[in-house]
Amino acid sequence: MKSLELFFADTSRALNVSSLLWAARGVCLTAVSTALFATSACTTTEHATETRPVLRNSSPGTMGELRIAETSLDSGNIELATSLFDKIVKADPTSVPGLTGLGDTLYAVGDFTRAGVYYQKASSFDPAAVGPRIGIARVAIHQRRFDDAISTYQGVLARVPGDPMASAGLGAALDLKGDHAGAQAVLRKALEANPGDPLLSVNLGLSLVLGGNPREGANVLLDVTRYPGAPPQARQDLALAYGLLGNNEAAAEILGKTLPKASVQDNLRFYDIQRTRSDYPADHRASVVTAVPATTIQASSVR
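Structure for Flp pilus assembly protein TadD, contains TPR protein, as requested:
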């Protein structure tokens, strides 16, 4: 693809990454692919739930509220999550998990500027905390400050080698800059440390697709979608791969499970346009051999 910027756009749930993460809570590369679908309302940010460490200034008295707040955020109850995180911060203005949580709630509704303020404040109280740093990097990606995001993710990985969220985010940032080879190297290395991680695998598959190798990308995504717990965006990315390979029938079968017929046709026309504009080798434009799996995908939690 000539420029990944062409494919980057915010959607109504703004990296629902509850991808991150981000939490997924890091920015999933699937957020990039969502922009390809005019009718798809999720930049990932349908994301996998993250097991977050207890930060050092979390008191036993607030841990129950913190867990409820995080669960509420993961389930999409932003109002309750915001109320609980706010209560935690009022009780302790230096609470890193509380401040990070408020940043996550703002991030979830697309208020990236204010989210960044809370992440920065949390990081100022505990520079070693991973959560706020990943939040800062995610905000930088949404603000198209890709170099800042890359630097921040690299800093996290220097302290926590192989961290899947930071690796996924770093791969996304590199892809958005057009460095597909670099992104794929990061994601493959992370998968060595985290075999089978669905977020990393989905991002690798999409990176391969956007980097001009939709056949290999489709094979990676097929492996992910075989499992019930696969991120929902995996199927959308697989539809993209099929579409760029010219296999509109398979792409339509996938899209038809969640989109109305008119929207499916709009996406297929988009794939056709991108396929003719792309400089893929001729052998990459052949149909995918493997059939589309019929596995039902469960929605992942988002942030």
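The longest helix spans residues 261-277.
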